[in-house]
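Posting this for the archive.
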Amino acid sequence: MFDFLKKQRKIILEDHVEHEVTVSNEQIDTKKMYIKEILETKKLPIVLLDPLWHSIRGQIVSDLIAKNERKLHDLLKEQGKLNNDYKDYNVVKQNFLKEILELSGALHTEDDVAKIAKLNKLHESTLGANQKLEDIEKRLQEVESEIEQINKEIIEEIVAVGYGYITLCKVQVQTLEREIDTLRQKVVEKTNEKKKNEHVLKGIYQYLHHVIGQQQIEVIDKELWDKKK
């Protein structure tokens, strides 16, 4: 399959292309099968409402995460609207019931046609409000289930991509540790070499000072050493 048709998954270490680490789709998908079982019964935080996720969101790049985040955003928006609508319709229903009680108390005879008609209309409106509330409750349950499912899919992807990077990172850390050990050994070797040169240099200067004196050494240094610079 062509690369541009594959899911894009990578870690961004800094805001530069050269600091991006691409993780294997095959390895990520294999990890997700195991992660799915682990997360099956776990109560998970909503990623879009989690500040900790937002703190690393710019580093973990995945087409699947981006697509599902948009879906989750729309579902949360719909959930908020449904909750507000439920409150509004409940208020309307309570007002209808209050009017029904008041009108029933004021109804003295069955011949009060106007009040009876209004009562019937209020009963119909109350039934309509009840139906609307039931519809909203049903959709809320569906939305909550959809939010839970899409949120779980996002977290599965986050964990899988994150562990994909952790695997690469551990290998890189081991490589860097070996390079650091090599550099450390070179520093020790170069330091010892420098000390040997300094020891020889000190011995020669001591001998020259002894033979021709410090003032003459300074003159020679100025004439020979300084000119080479």
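The two ends are 63 Å apart (CA to CA). Residues 103 and 118 are 8 Å apart (CA to CA).
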